[in-house]
Amino acid sequence: MKISVLLKTAMANKGIKNATELSKLTGVKYGTVARAINDENVGIVVIEGLLDFMGYQVTMELSK
Prior knowledge:
single chain, 59% helix
């Protein structure tokens, strides 16, 4: 699943309408939020922070 789909789903579930609103709520620069929801590389720390703000927890499972 694409990161943008996860972010947009989380935003919809929280009633956050757009990147501007998410930026204002989180303190993350608008350009960074916009890039994240458009599947541009912003780094996992930013993605984790945005999802955490919206009540989601990022976990990773490693396989051999």
